[in-house]
TrEMBL record:
UniProt name for this protein: Uncharacterized protein
Keyword Signal annotated: yes
One Pfam family of this chain: DUF707
Region (Disordered): 62-95
Lineage top rank: taxon: Eukaryota
Keyword Signal assigned: yes
Keyword terms: Signal
Cleaved signal peptide residues: 1-26
Annotated source species: Oryza meyeriana var. granulata
Amino acid sequence: MCSTTPRGVALAGMLLFLVLLFVAGATVKLHCTGFQNAATAGDENGSLLARKILRVKMQTGEPNVSMLRQDHQRRSSSTAAAPSSGGGGPLPAGIVQGTSNLEMESMVGDSEHGGGTSSKTKSLLAVPVGIKNKAAVDKLVSKFPAEEFAVMLFHYDGAVEKWSDMEWHGRAVHVAAAGQTKWWFAKRFLHPDVVAEYEYVFLWDEDVEVDSFDPLRYLAVVRREGLEVSQPALAHGSEIHHGITARSASGGNVHRRFYRRAGPRCDGDNTAPPCTGWVEMMVPVFSRVAWRCAWGMVQNDLVHAWGLDYKLGYCAGGDRTLKVGVVDSEHVFHRGVPTLGGGGGGFRAAVRRRSYAEMQIFNRRWKQAVADDVSWTDPYPEH
């Protein structure tokens, strides 16, 4: 029988511990060395690739146009339905309300049973206003019945409190920002998801007279004619910039073309704006889907939106020669009163210079976008 002293056991245990420690250290060193070698071998290419990706993102600064187009098509195909958050999203699908409206809500009462907003489909009137045109705006807003229209006023002079004596003041949504244009307001406060519940969006200037205009009859014509982008005709004596907006002398409900052989050629062969498929930017009316498209074209920094009118036909959801039109039976009078340009002749001239410059910038961006998006096909190529 073999006997072992306690001292011998201790020495054997220490020897075994040192052997295990040596083996473990060698293994760790081997793994670290292998990792370092692999990192060294790929460092140059990996670092260059990482820097290249970062540089491309910084230089581009724009979202992928193909992805934007796909998202736009997906959104345009829907109406006011709230998007689902199913499929592993952060919220349960049934709680998500992806759209909103401009309706007033009471702070008391039963929200689910009579205390909430009406389920009736409405349209929206949005107008930039200054206190100097208070009387004309009062007549304009009063023409749009409360049960059929929501109202949003863009106060470019900031004088919100001076409208409190208007009968309709309490039902209007008031937004104030000094010195901003209609399109600046529209881009920031008329997002398609916010106004998705409204069937039509009237985005009108304040300097129009509506004595001969009825909005309900107007919409009846628009629906019957299938117009996605439209405007009321301008009455005789109005400030008219393009012949197609003038009220037709031949009568009828709607016209979609303008014929004139002198000056800009608008003969039977010309189907391009402003001879056909065109409305002006002072009193446009958009369907829900058309507004989603048009809002996407409004540029954040191009506040006068010059040049946009020539492209609105792309938002008509079909042939612009059929889906865009001027309603003759419900016409308005355009007074052509300078509003934001009321700071004097020099200021108005500066506004016009910027407007022309913005049109050139917009056209350049359009051409660049067309060139960049190889998946997009222009239904109206220039000849």
